[in-house]
Amino acid sequence: MRILFTAQAAFSHVHPLVLPLARSAREAGHDVLVATSPELAPDLDLPAGDVLVLPRSQPLGQVMRRLSAEAADRPRTPDAGPAANGTSPELFARGFVSTIAPTTAEDLLAACGDRPPDLVVREASEFGGHLAAEVLGVPHRVLDIGPMSHASDPVVLAALDVQRARFGLPPLEPGRIWGSGRIGVVPEAFYPPSLRPAGAGYFQVPSPRRPTPLPRTVADLPGDRPLVLAGLGSNAAMVPGIDRILDAIIVALGRLPVSAVVALGADQDPWAWTGARAPNVVLESFVPQQELLSTCDLFITHAGFNGVREAIAAGVPMVALPLFADQPATAARVEEIGLGRVLDPAVVDPETLAVTVARTLRNPAVRCTARAMQRQTLALPPLVDALTAP
To answer: What Pfam families does UniProt report for this protein, alphabetically (predicted)?
Structure first.
């Protein structure tokens, strides 16, 4: 089977889930093609023949920052980023559907029109693949990289119908946004009942094929106290006021009887860090999060879905500091089902964070809930099975 994978031009939309599924498909004997931007293509670690470069694809962050600056719903806390505001359905529709999807679809059709794929797998926020698949008349499935996003919001579906009309397609039938199936990568219990469409499947993401060794500074931490990992994602450096939030995290963890690792961000040299430090807190620019989480007792996270998914798979409780996009909604769901607590990064201080971390570490109910969700994850079939599931 020839499978086309499509995703937004952003590391967090391609690498954590789309690439593992594409690689698994290739190992299972399928022909794969991953569509991406000129900027991301060199970093995919795939054979050149498996990569389709879309010439007009723009970096997602660049597009959304421009649209956010033009929008009336700007962050109300410019010193701390969007904080708990999230992205409105209107802004989501304007960026992902009205701005990005048409050119993506046109580029896909130009590249694949003479030899259509047998299946299109798009990540949930990428709608150009939806349009191209519908025009080509091939089945498409949705890899759900953001269960709490606005991907199926009525405002978004209305915007998609406008684009469908441009491509000569009829209005979307009710429930058809997921094509021939939604591919979930966390247990069904994570989804609110209203977001559990008929025919959805739930699958287990494979472990990294080449695990990254831990830094010695992390591996040699003492084993006589809980281990806390804090990381605010690959886009944290772009959030105004992020240094204040990182300072609050470091100071809070420095006051607790824990060992801690704080990932400052890939572009932040820990040796050049001028903010807070603590003797029990190791600062790193990057850590192999999935590998390290399996050894942790608590995760302080921005509630990006991939980090939440990895914490669920590792059975680790969370304290969430959501920054933007669907993170506030994801964090709220984490708290609602008992996997952790949520704090507002716009106003968080070391005292409040230290108390919340200490209480969460001492709470057996949160730990048991996290372990139960981990067991549900381990019972899911492998992700590659989603490609041939009925």
So the answer is: EryCIII-like_C, EryCIII-like_N
Identity (one letter) of the amino acid at 134? Answer: E
277 Cβ partners below 8 Å, 6+ apart? Answer: 250, 254, 283
Boundaries of domain holding 144? 2-180
Residues 41, 164, single domain; the answer is yes
Q: What pLDDT was estimated at residue 68?
A: 77
Task: Identify the pLDDT of residue 83.
Answer: 39
Give every CB contact of residue 362 below 8 A, 6+ residues apart in sequence: none
Residue listed under structure tokens 């984490």 = 334
Question: What is the three-class DSSP state of 361?
Answer: helix
Please give the pLDDT value at position 100.
97
Strand order of the β-sheet with 51-53 is: 51-53, 31-36, 2-6, 119-123, 140-143, 182-184, 201-202
Same structural domain, 303 and 350: yes
CA dihedral of residues 306, 58, 325, 156 (deg, nearest 10)? -110
Whether residues 7 and 136 share a domain: the answer is yes
Same domain, 221 and 122: no
CATH number of residue 43's parent domain = 3.40.50.2000
Same domain, 164 and 271: no
Beta strands in 223-375 (DSSP E): 227-231, 259-263, 281-284, 298-301, 318-320, 340-342
Note whether 170 and 225 are same-domain residues: no
> What pLDDT sits at residue 390?
81
Give SS3 for 283: strand
pLDDT at 210 (0 to 100): 77
> If we measure between CA atoms, which residue out of 287, 340, 341 comes closest to residue 312?
340
Any domain includes 333: yes
pTM: 0.93
**182-226 tens-digit pLDDT:** 999 999 999 999 999 988 999 999 987 778 899 999 999 999 999
Query: What's the domain count of the chain?
Result: 2
Closest CA to 26 of 112, 113, 121: 121
pLDDT level of residue 80 (50, 70, 90 thresholds): very low
User: Which DSSP string corresponds to 188-203?
Assistant: GGGS-GGG--TT-EE-
pLDDT (0 to 100) of residue 77: 37
17, 143 contact by CB (below 8 A): yes
